[in-house]
Amino acid sequence: MATDILYAASVNSGSTTSSSAAYGAEDTVYTGDTDNTSWTCRWNMDTMALGALSTTANAQSISVRVRKQTGTGTPTYVLNVYEDGTLQHTSASTSVTSLTGQNITHTWTSAGSGGQDIDVEFVVSAVGGNPATRASVQVDAITYTADYIPPITFQATMSGQSDSSGSVDGLVTKWATASGQSDSSGSVAGLLTKWASASGQSDSSGSAAIKLNIVISASGQSNSSGSTNATYTIGEDFIGWGFPL
Question: How many CA atoms lie within 13 A of 31 on its CB side?
Fold first, then answer.
C-alpha cells in the first residue's frame, strides 16, 4: 500500500463566500460565510498518483480545518464524498465549536476506483435566531490522505526473444482487475509485468511465444511509437507469480 496527500483544487458545484480559500494546505485563510448563512459547496480534489484506491474498510481519510463565525451558537455540517461521480460516503452531522479553528477527521471506504475523481462536499446548517447566537461554518483546508495500491513491476535479464516485427521484446504482461487505469486502447488497468529467461516458442499460427513453465501464445500489438509489442494470452496460472489471473 501507499498514500498520497491531496487537497481541494477547484469548485465542482454549489458555493460559499471565498470558496478558493479552501484550496491547498492549511494557511489560516478561511471561506467567508458568517452568522445565519447556511451553504453547500462541493470541491474537486487533486488528482491521485497512478494506482487503484484500497478497498480496506475506513482506509481513506479526510481531515478538514474549520471554525465557526461569529456568534455563540453551534453550527453543524454533513460531509459527502463522491468517488468517480458516485456518492460513496455521508458523515453524521458534525458540530463546529471553535472560533479559532479545529481539525476534524472523517474516514470512509472506497469502492476501489482509480481515484482520479474524488469530490468533497460540505452541507452546512447555520444557527439563526438571536443575533448574538448566529453562527456559520468556515473552511480553511480539506486534506485527503488517499490509501492506494500502486502498479507492481518485476524485471530480470532476458535476451534472444523477438516479436512478429523481429525486434527484441519478450515482455510478458498480465493485467489484474483494477478500475481507473487504462492502456492505450482504454482497457482496464492494474498493470503487472514480469521479465524472465525463456526460449523462443511459436504457436500454430506462427505468432511469437514465450515458454515460461508453460507455453503461451502471443499476437502482435502496436504501441504508440508504431513498433510492435506483444500481448500474451495466458493459458493457465503462473505458479510463483503470487498473483491470481
Answer: 31
